[in-house]
């Protein structure tokens, strides 16, 4: 099991090697945020059970590095990153995807990256 600290550390190293300090901050932050988003979404869909062992953090890290933070809302990424057998209860991937989208929107809005203030949405 790879935890949040480990995924953040690996992503920071990856970003630093590629783009220096700015890349380390961006890559580490995005990968860690992606992991936490999936974790929160899965927890809310399974009534707060311990879900850390069911999440493949490496898969999330790879998806976020390739496609950005929005990759955690992709059904394919969630299917690959979540091992339903380790959750301990039935998982509705539609609910997890919806929760991940909500969490991602909250992260983007709080970071100032969202366009909701322009009135276009």
TrEMBL record:
Transmembrane stretches, start-end: 19-38
Keywords: Membrane, Transmembrane, Transmembrane helix
Keyword field contains Transmembrane: yes
Region ranges (Disordered): 71-121
Biased composition range(s): Low complexity: 109-121
Protein name: Uncharacterized protein
Organism: Natrinema salaciae
